[in-house]
Amino acid sequence: MAESGAWVPEGVDITVPNASRVYDYALGGVHNFTVDREFWHQTERVFPEARMVARANRAFLGRAVRWLMEERGVTQFLDIGSGIPTLGNVHEAAQEIDPRARVVYVDIDPIAVEQSRSLLRGNPGARAVRGDLREPEVLLSDSRLQDFLDFSRPIGVLMVAVLQFVPDAADPRSIISRIGAALASGSHLVLSHTGPETTAERRERQERVRQLYEQTPTPLVIRDRRRLLDLIDDSFEVVEPGVVTAEQWRPDSEEAAEIPPQPTALAVVARRV
Ligand SMILES: C[S@@+](CC[C@H](N)C(=O)[O-])C[C@H]1O[C@@H](n2cnc3c(N)ncnc32)[C@H](O)[C@@H]1O
Q: Hey, which bits of 42-98 come out as E strands?
């Protein structure tokens, strides 16, 4: 992809790696720049498992959406930190089951929002807005959300591989709690998060990846199971099987066979009581 084209929205710095574009490249997308690709190659040199982690995470997202629709009757979704559209987007999984399903994508990255809008052209059931998870009241009062989703009915709120870019200083527990306060009972949170590696050798390599992320606008925060659960207050109840690795969350047999265990991709779903 060209490095300076009309498609680069104003204000986008293409000289520093960006989480959404790095992830896009990791999953085989084309909306990324040299700096993102080099960053990913550096990451993979240190941590070759990273691509599988991204795939396990993405597969979890699809399973969770299908499960919420089929088992919990949820037909509206708010995907925060949605990233650049790639394979298996939320609206594709949801509208395949119910063509009337509604999805709002939110991302802080203008390129992710622009690419989502371009993909969604002609789809009346899905839209993309730019927003910052760290400002939940601003995000939730946006008329493009309020006019489109019915907050008196359950909503599936996805924060998949995004809370790891929200530091403790931004108080992610309070952010989730404030989002939860706007949701009807029966809504669900779908979270995934980078967790700690399980062996000393892998932890040492993971630490080098964490240090790499220091050069991006969104440094990486690693949280273990306990810290992930601590982000969810008691207005939610955690759904079985609790916090597990992404590929262990209600696997269907094909995916379970395809993706080997990825200890760092933690996943959990919780229901608004
Ligand atoms: C690793 S990607 C995950 C994409 C998608 N959720 C998935 O799992 O396939 C993380 C995304 O979160 C976005 N992001 C980071 N901080 C954010 C914030 N404060 N508000 C909204 N989006 C944010 C990034 O721009 C990026 O697109």
A: 76-80
